[in-house]
Amino acid sequence: MAKAKLSEKIGYGFGDMSSSMFWKIFTYYLPFFYSNIFGLTLSEGAMLLLVTKLWDAVFDPCMGIIADRTRTKWGKYRPYLLWMAIPFALMGVLTFTVPHFTHGWKLFYAYATYILMMTVYSGVNVPYAAMLGVISDDQRERTVFSSFRMFFAFGGSFLALAIFEPVRNFFGGVSSQTAWMLSMAVIGLICAILFFCCFSMTREHVVTSDVVKSDDISDASSRKQLEHASIWHDIRSLVSNVPWWILLVVSIAAVFFSSIRGGTAAYYFQDYLGNKAQLGHGVVLSCGAFLAIGEVANMFGVIFAVPVSNRLGKSHTYLYAMLIAGILSVVFYYLPVTVGGVWGMLILQVLINACCGITYPLLWSMFADIGDWSEWKHGNSSIGLIFSSSSMAQKIGGAVGSALVLWLLSAFGYKAVQGAIQTAGAVHGLNLMMSWFPAIACLIAVVAVAFYPLTNSQMKKISDELKTRRAANKHLRS
After folding, report:
1. Mean pLDDT, to the nearest integer, of 115-142?
2. pTM
3. In whole angstroms, what is the distance from residue 210 CA to residue 294 CA?
4. d(CA 332, CA 293)
5. Residues linked to residue 280 through DSSP beta bridges, in sequence order
6. Among 464, 126, 159, residue whose Cα is nearest residue 298
7. Which label site among 23, 213, 248, 470 has the fewest CB atoms less than 10 Å from its CB?
8. Using one digit for the tens of pLDDT, what is the confidence trace for 360-412?
């Protein structure tokens, strides 16, 4: 196929720009919101985050199967950007709304809204991710699309983190329940607009191979039986897909890294650094600025993903970048709470996130490659199921990571009360949670990706064979 237009790459990037705005707010602020604003205990908040995100992870493959079997004039996956944009924004607002209920009903409300939020998130994000497999049939072009996706994703994260605290302060400040709700309304409106732009600016160009062509079967009963068999064929193919299992572990570890580190940041700045986050000359480093700067560093890392991976290969580039991020995370632990130490924290934040920025587009591009490998080996790509498994892995890592933040805080004796004086053990725990625990997650990802078997040269061979098959199938259909 012809090289995609720049406008389509930008449009595709808008989709993850929208998703990432919500994802980063959930990751970085939702634990704090539930424990310090909504009024849940640390154990209630941890269980809530774990249960709802595990439900979301289980629903992802179901959404992938549904998307794989969707047939519209707009394609398989793209229509969900249009259908889910408004529900996505609305559920974000409701999730950050504090109802005037008794504690038991408030807990029920929190479960209901966050489960619905994560269901809608899957409803739009799984098909969006699967679009990478049908937006181009060239593996390098996919890496370019994935890089645009990640660049705009981090741009969205930066925008959300940069405006969230100022908007919240404008509406009433950190202790105002209404301020949190209205801040999410502002961000939700931006997200809905971005999804509409993504839908209008992109197209599905690749028609993948399907084992069952049930559309050509007139008998409803036979069609239903064949579609059922096709689902089980897809699942069996996935379970026997060794590269998928490897990336599953890598995805969980990577999100575990970002969830622990990001979810701890608000507590770290409030109770570890306090009023000592001085950069000199009266300038104070805030949590929002720290996180937003990290997103900018992620964006710069994404820029290097394509040229470096073209030279070293995707898996090797991922391995080296994650290894460096882990080492720098350990260094973070030893920085003192001084002006020089705070500057060191900021510098390490830039370097760590730049390394992570390199890895994100490579991971999505490798999942697209796995779809091609599955089509080449088994005859069906099951792109939606494969990409939903990636999303599932991320959410499992996010569920455990987010819950673990609160469990660890509780284990270290953290007091979830505004203005409380924290114990030395709790303060030390915050430092560990910003350094050593994320470093362990990096190590797991490095070990797993070392076994990833699909090289650039092997994928080039597979891609060439698939082009021939797809051309032959297209000729037979015509």
Report:
1. 87
2. 0.70
3. 41
4. 16
5. 283
6. 159
7. 213
8. 888 878 887 887 777 777 666 566 677 776 667 677 777 777 788 889 999 99
Residue 213 phi/psi, 5-degree rounding, is -100, 65
Q: Which two tokens stand for residue 149?
A: 């996706």
Q: What is the 3-state secondary structure (H, E, C) of 267-333?
A: HHHHHHHHHHCEEECCEECCHHHHHHHHHHHHHHHHHHHHHHHHHHCHHHHHHHHHHHHHHHHHHHH
- The per-residue pLDDT for range 314-324, each reduced to its tens digit, is 989 999 999 99
Give the Cα separation of 86 and 239 in Å (integer).
Answer: 35
Angle (CA) 15-17-20 rounded to 5° is: 110
2: which DSSP letter? Answer: P
DSSP 211-246: S--GGG---HHHHHHHHHHHHHHHHHHHHT-HHHHH
Q: Burial letters for 79-106: b for 16+ Cβ neighbours within 10 Å, e otherwise?
A: bbbbebbebbbbbbbbbbbbeeeeeeeb
Neighbours of 410 (CB within 10 A): 19
What percentage of the chain reaches a pLDDT higher than 90?
44
Task: Return left, alpha or beta for 455; rule: phi > 0 is left, psi -120 to 50 is alpha, else beta.
Answer: beta
Assigned token pair, 32: 């704090």
Residue whose tokens read 């720098």:
328
And the tokens for 255? 């999100």
Residue 271 has φ and ψ, to the nearest 5°, of: -115, -20
Instruction: State which amino acid sits at residue 255.
Output: V
Q: Give the angle 276-155-400 at the CA atoms, nearest 5°.
A: 70
CA distance 180 to 182: 6
Number of CB atoms found within 10 A of residue 221's CB: 8
Q: How far apart are CA 16 and CA 191, in angstroms?
A: 10
